[in-house]
Specification:
The complex is a heterodimer of chains A (243) and B (267). With 243 residues, chain A is an alpha/beta fold. Chain A has a domain at 3-84 and 156-235: P-loop containing nucleotide triphosphate hydrolases (Rossmann fold). Helix content of chain A is 27%, strand content 25%. A 6-stranded mixed β-sheet of chain A has the order 5-6-7-3-8-9, sandwiched between helices. A 3-stranded antiparallel β-sheet of chain A has the order 2-1-4. In chain A, strand 1 and strand 2 (17-28) form a beta hairpin. Chain B has 267 residues and is mostly helical. Chain B has helices spanning 2-7, 9-31, 35-44, 46-54, 59-80, 85-106, 112-119, 127-156, 158-163, 168-209, 213-238, 242-265. In chain B, helix 3 runs parallel beside helix 6, helix 3 (35-44) crosses helix 10 (168-209) and helix 10 (168-209) crosses helix 11. Chain B is globular. Classes of the chains: A alpha/beta (243), B mainly alpha (267).
Chain lengths: 243, 267
């Protein structure tokens, strides 16, 4: 099967401190990967390296055989729902259409508008299209940004904390939609519930990478809740292989 | 009234041309949070005034070239040292002004142009400046028309724009270049100390009352033109400095608007 992503002996350091150490992994075409781990463990750094937003200190990454600076055009990216300029007068429809822009495409055509309508229907956000992006709730904004990621016609979808700051219903809808999409999917989350969403493999990142091929939750819920720390501890132990 | 309008004809044309620049570049400046960068270019461009006096060069040419140099320097530094940009902006701001002060001190004689560049006088805009403003406005309009969606996508989410391989660095550099050009073209009218207020207030009000960036730019231009013309008439009837009257009127409306905004958003 074709490889979507290949990472070889990846190291990354901020200043002189290593955040990621000797990470090697391959992700197959149409695989569904969950990346979990504690805050500050290097999950978002790993994603930024995949997207070419950061340059590895050592090691290589390829996206469908090309370096991230080129291959990232095949990636639909949903960033963490922070750092946005919410004052900017911008309608949700324009934000989604931004997904159609590229280095060679600076305007929108009729196909783009049709695609917008189609994605909006798929994500049940047609009623939001004419609203100002700053006036949307966290969950509504997240769905609009997911629509923007899908508008890029991606082969790989990377979602960074897609369910942070959204209500339970939206969370369920997002996971449901992900299961329906026939793409390579990578979901970064500190929420261990992602493990229950039918993912193929789990990447546990805490400076090093621990890959889990069999998704059996290492512990059962206590009174309906998972103990996050306990799961992280088990996922980072000898149960997983480090490459 | 006809005599008054004739007297103010150059000022009214300048008001219209500067309002177009404020509407477009002021809005782009605001949505990118570049106001501090722009203030640095405006104040730093005083170095160009000093160079013109010392070497007996045309003032507009010298100030324009120096402001462009500062814009390119800031663009370069913002890629190279993004985490130290605030301190670099302050240094460039002070350095440009210091060059201007020292070179004008070293130039013998009284320099009436200096005050005009510091505080501006929209009543004394020469025809040459109007041509310059017209050309700059045309270039700005063309630039924004060609790159409108790029500019807005980058302003909203720079990281996403990079992942789409949009020309983020080039747009950033060109925005700073156009900020420099539009500020320089407005300095003789509003002075380098006051010009930033006029580039910030109308876009701020427009941002809050519009739903998309096109209408924000249009509204900002209309508000700027209204403020400048109202300030001109206020200055004429009260016999006070036109530039100060315009900026004071703009500031008063900004404060009223801001107070209204606060009271509608507070719980």
């Amino acid at each position: 099967m074709q490889l979507a992503i290949e990472v070889k002996h990846l190291f990354f350091a901020y200043e002189k401190e290593y955040v990621l150490e000797d990470i090697s992994a391959t992700i197959k075409d149409r695989e569904y990967i969950a990346i979990i781990g504690p805050n500050g463990g290097g999950k978002s750094t790993f994603v930024k390296l995949l997207l070419g937003l950061l340059t590895p200190t050592k090691g290589t990454i390829t996206i469908y055989g090309t370096p991230p600076s080129k291959g990232r055009e095949l990636i639909g990216y949903l960033p963490q729902n922070i750092h946005f300029n919410l004052d900017i007068p911008l309608q949700a429809r324009e934000v989604i259409l931004h997904g159609r822009l590229s280095a060679k495409k600076r305007t929108f055509d009729r196909d783009d508008l049709q695609m917008l309508e189609h994605i909006a229907q798929q994500l049940h956000i047609t009623h939001l299209l004419n609203k100002k992006i700053g006036e949307l709730s966290g969950g509504e904004r997240q769905r609009v940004l997911l629509a923007r990621a899908l508008a890029t016609k991606p082969k790989i979808l990377i979602l960074d904390e897609p369910t942070a700051a959204v209500d339970f219903k939206t969370q369920k809808e997002i996971y449901q939609l992900l299961q329906e999409l026939d793409l390579t999917k990578i979901v970064v989350s500190h929420d261990v519930n992602i493990l229950l969403q039918g993912v193929d493999r789990v990447f546990y990142i805490n400076r090093k990478l621990y890959i889990h091929n069999n998704i059996n939750l290492p512990i059962t819920p206590q009174e309906g809740h998972f103990c996050e720390m306990e799961i992280f501890e088990k996922l980072g132990s000898e149960n997983g292989c480090t490459h | 009234m006809v005599a008054l309008i004739e007297l103010l004809s150059n000022s009214l044309i300048a008001a219209l041309l500067i309002s177009i620049a404020i509407g477009i570049i002021g809005s782009i400046m605001l949505i990118n949070r570049y106001n501090y960068l722009a203030a640095s270019i405006a104040h730093g461009s005083y170095g160009g005034v000093g160079i013109a006096l010392f070497f007996s060069l045309p003032l507009l040419l010298s100030t324009t070239l120096f402001a462009l140099f500062l814009a390119l320097l800031l663009a370069y530094l913002s890629y190279k040292e993004p985490k130290r940009l605030d301190i670099l902006i302050s240094v460039i701001w002070a350095m440009g002004m210091s060059i201007g002060i020292i070179l004008s001190d070293l130039t013998p004689g009284y320099h009436s142009d200096l005050l005009a560049y510091l505080f501006g006088n929209i009543l004394l805009v020469p025809n040459d400046d109007l041509y310059f403003m017209g050309i700059v406005d045309c270039i700005v309009l063309l630039f924004v028309w060609q790159n409108f969606h790029y500019l807005i996508a980058i302003a909203y989410d720079k990281e996403f724009a990079i992942t789409r391989n949009l020309p983020v660095k080039m747009m950033h550099t060109l925005i700073l270049v156009f900020i420099a050009l539009t500020i320089v073209m407005s300095i003789r009218s509003f002075g380098l100390i006051l010009v930033i207020a006029l580039f910030s207030i109308p876009p701020f009000i427009a941002e809050k009352i519009t739903k998309n960036a096109q209408s924000m730019m249009l509204a900002a231009a209309v508000i700027a033109f209204f403020l400048i013309v109202a300030g001109l008439f206020l200055a004429y009837f009260l016999n006070i400095s036109a530039t100060a009257a315009i900026i004071l009127l703009a500031s008063a409306i900004f404060l009223l608007f801001f107070k209204g905004l606060k009271s509608t958003t507070s719980p």
